[in-house]
Specification:
The chain is built from 8 helices and 9 strands. The chain is an alpha/beta fold and 306 residues long.
């Protein structure tokens, strides 16, 4: 993929800085004459109760599917404007097209959320599109299996690059924008696997544990700036990433069997839904959660209560 930021598939430039200025090329589809603005026309298509994050400017990584997609939809339903990024261009553009057809204030940026060379440009583009950044939902992540001996160095490093290093890089880029606005909220998507041991997924559990302590340290560093930092740690969810992790190309029945086995371990008797996690993310980004910072908020159907 060419390094850079793509806002839409059509190629009509909107006067934002060119690649030579240090900002990746930003293009816009006909019918969007300027930066995103919330309008009375846009909001009724989603919710008449846009009170939690109404008017907030939100940046979401890994927003094309799973928890990230649910987060995009929920923030829009609550009256926010959203820029989301993802490596999956097909799903990302399809989601953007669906939402913009309903007058939603949303744009998609196609990039690898762990690519350091692209993150600064993407954040600058998002801030210019939205008029600032109030909320970061750092959701992009990968699940890597393997025990201590089977895990390769490359798998370990890639998992930490996406699950720990990237959230830090996105955070350090949005913090100046939040400080400028005198307010901000950062929410990481963690995992219950980062709270307890989980055999057979050494790089994933270690990375998610590291993410939780990154969250706690950032919360303390940024508390005086009015910026809250929290994590939402889901348990067993039915998401595309979960399904990829549980598939076995040599066993056609493995996916169904593994999903059922995981659901059986959850006290409420089922897998969680991405929308349930997104609701908690939106709360932590809202004005109602200004006193909540440094917390790991579990959404696991009682899995870790025992």
């Amino acid at each position: 993929m060419q390094a850079g930021v793509v806002i839409t598939r059509r190629e009509r430039a909107v006067g934002l800085p060119s690649p030579s200025s240090g900002l990746a090329r930003v293009t816009q589809r006909a019918g969007w004459p300027g930066p995103l603005r919330l309008t009375s026309r846009a909001q009724p298509a989603y919710s008449s109760q846009a009170v939690k994050v109404s008017g907030k400017r939100v940046l979401i990584t890994g927003g094309a599917s799973g928890v990230g997609e649910a987060s995009v939809r929920r923030f829009l339903a609550e009256g926010a404007a959203v820029v989301f990024v993802d490596l999956d261009q097909e799903r990302g553009f399809a989601l953007e097209r669906e939402l913009r057809d309903r007058d939603a204030p949303v744009r998609f940026i196609a990039l690898d959320a762990s690519a350091e060379s692209e993150i600064a440009s993407a954040v600058q583009a998002a801030a210019q599109t939205l008029g600032g950044i109030d909320v970061l939902h750092s959701n992009a992540g990968i699940a890597a299996g393997g025990d201590a001996l089977a895990t390769s160095i490359a798998e370990w490093e890639r998992t930490f690059a996406v699950n720990v290093r990237a959230p830090w890089l996105w955070s350090r880029q949005v913090i100046p924008h939040m400080r400028e606005g005198g307010w901000g909220a950062i929410v990481f998507t963690g995992s219950t696997s980062g709270m307890v041991g989980f055999p057979g997924a050494i790089p994933y559990t270690a990375s998610k544990g590291g993410l939780l302590n990154l969250m706690r340290s950032l919360a303390l560093e940024l508390a005086a700036d009015g910026i809250t930092v929290n994590a939402v740690s889901p348990g067993h969810l039915d998401t595309p990433m979960t399904r990829r992790f549980m598939e076995d190309p040599n066993d056609a029945d493995a996916l169904g069997r593994n999903l059922a086995a995981h659901a059986a371990t959850v006290p409420v008797g089922r897998l969680g839904r991405p929308e349930e996690v997104a609701a908690l993310v939106v709360f932590l980004a809202s004005d109602d959660a200004r006193f909540c910072t440094g917390g790991n908020h579990v959404c696991d159907g009682g899995l870790t209560a025992a």
